[in-house]
Design a protein that fits this description.
The chain crosses the membrane at residues 150-174. The chain is of the alpha+beta class. It has helices at residues 5-23, 149-191, and strands at residues 27-30, 33-37, 42-44, 46-49, 59-66, 73-79, 82-83, 94-96, 107-109, 118-125, 134-142.
């Protein structure tokens, strides 16, 4: 073994190489929860990162798991071009809204219904990165928008603006009355 120290190095590299191969995977990022109003359209954002450049074999799969935990349903598939579902609840209700070159594989669901409540999964494979995380988006379809902090802030700012306008108007009216009163007093003094 004295004359061949490189053999040990090759064996060690051979053991570590599969471990390095497994770390090269696609990472998928999504919004964890989305709330949308019944009858509207909603973009489900999904982006990814890959240790390999975007390949011609990049595939995107969107699936849906209803809240009642019935079977998964296909929503959308992409391989070189978008493929819409030929049947099911999302037929003619889903469109591609991604840009592969920007690592964006988002979709838009049209005309949301309460039956669309559930979890959407986004999976990306980019050869040779075929393993990786699966992104999940929980969608809640509501009848009307709930009163959130943003709405509270908008009401507070609107109320403050109205109050400010009222105060400025009162100040202007008071000044004009004072000026008129002073003119009357001046006229009365000149008449005397």
């Amino acid at each position: 073994m004295r004359g061949r120290p490189w053999v040990g190095a090759v064996l060690l590299l051979g053991v570590q190489l599969p471990a390095l191969w497994l770390t090269a995977a696609v990472e998928v990022y999504t919004s964890k929860e989305v709330v949308a109003v019944n009858g509207t359209n909603q973009r489900l954002k999904c982006t990814f990162s890959s240790s390999s450049p975007v390949s011609q074999q990049l595939a995107v799969t969107w699936n849906f798991q209803p809240e009642d935990l019935s079977s998964h349903e296909p929503v959308f598939y992409y391989l070189k071009e978008p493929y819409h579902p030929p049947s099911g609840r999302f037929k003619e209700r889903v469109t591609w809204d991604g840009d592969i070159l920007r690592n964006d594989v988002s979709i838009v669901i049209w005309n949301l219904q309460p039956t669309d409540n559930g979890t959407f999964t986004c999976q990306v494979t980019n050869w040779p990165d075929v393993y990786g995380t699966i992104g999940e988006v929980r969608l809640r379809v509501v009848q009307k928008v709930s009163f959130s902090e943003i709405h509270f802030l908008a009401v507070a700012i609107g109320s403050a603006s109205v109050l400010m306008i009222i105060v400025v108007t009162v100040v202007i009216i008071c000044r004009q009355r004072r000026k008129k009163a002073q003119k009357r007093m001046e006229v009365a003094d000149t008449e005397l």
